[in-house]
Amino acid sequence: MTMNELSALGLTVFAGLSTGVGSLMALMSRKFNPKFLAASLGFSAGVMIYVSMIEIFVKAKTALTGWYGLKPGNVVTVAAFFGGIAVIAVIDKLIPSYENPHEIHNVAACGDEKAFCVDEQKLRRMGLFSALAIAIHNFPEGLATFMSAISDPALGVSIAVAIAIHNIPEGIAVSAPLYYATKSRRTSFWLSFLSGLSEPVGAIIGYFILKPYFNDGTFGIIFAMVAGIMVYISLDELLPTAEEYGEHHIAIGGLIAGMAVMAGSLLLFI
């Protein structure tokens, strides 16, 4: 692998293994700040939406119109964008909603001294299914981070940070139910941590399968799909989760801040 590819892989590993950060927050933190998490998730959504529509989609269109011509290139760009949305939506649809870490569920209080009503078997199953669901979701996310970093290292850093923030609540989704089921912090942490490994694995498999066929057309289609995937993640996962953890205005404030920071960082490289 070239140095550029190794750097891109390093960013993808960083983004994927941030599930471990979420796991540590769930297992070690005695004081959880939901407003901070809501603002962070909103910020991540702002970064991902802005960079997808302003930078990645435009790069995809430029590559595809150059490869296919003006009108066919625009048609392929739009089709690939919505194709990316369709891919991640189908993945969400195939995973049962209760086990899906991207679906929001409130844990009912017991009404007595216990913090939660614990059904150990159900929680263990939920945690394991969440780990599997995260592994499946992280495949396209890993490819998105990797390809962006190869094309533009500065853009790759921004996307990796946004994906990393997005992965933190996924680590919580795996480790919290497993801990209540097994009472083992070590088991809960490692299952959550390892679920993030599918991100660099997805990047490597996807990249080396596509590498022999790589040209401006392939690049443009992948980038347009990446834009669609990131917009879907932001609208379907990050913003609803941010609203669940905090107030509406905190989530939107984070969203606008993320867009502003991304816009400023892109201006620096003009």
Sheet/helix structural class: mainly alpha
- Overall geometric form: globular
Low-confidence runs: 104-118
What is the multimeric organization of the chains shown? single chain
Provide the domain count. Answer: 1
Radius of gyration: 19 Å
Task: Bin the helical content.
Answer: over 70%
- H-E order: HHHHHHHHHH
Largest sheet: none
Counting DSSP E segments of at least 2 residues, the number of strands comes to: 0
The percent range for strand residues is: under 5%
Number of helices: 10
- Provide the residue-averaged pLDDT: 77
- Termini separation comes to 29 Å
Structure write-up:
With 270 residues, the chain is mainly α. The protein has one domain (3-26, 38-105, 127-267). Helix content is 81%, strand content 0%. It is built from ten helices and no strands. The chain has helices at 3-16, 19-28, 34-68, 70-94, 120-151, 153-182, 185-195, 198-210, 216-245, 248-267. Helix 1 (3-16) runs parallel beside helix 6, helix 2 runs parallel beside helix 6 and helix 6 (153-182) runs antiparallel to helix 7. The radius of gyration is 19 Å and the shape is globular. The model is unreliable at 104-118 (pLDDT under 50).
Itemize the secondary structure elements and their pairings:
Layout: H1 3-16, H2 19-28, H3 34-68, H4 70-94, H5 120-151, H6 153-182, H7 185-195, H8 198-210, H9 216-245, H10 248-267
Helix pairs in contact: 1-5, 1-6, 1-8, 2-6, 2-7, 3-4, 3-6, 3-9, 3-10, 4-9, 5-6, 5-7, 5-8, 5-9, 6-7
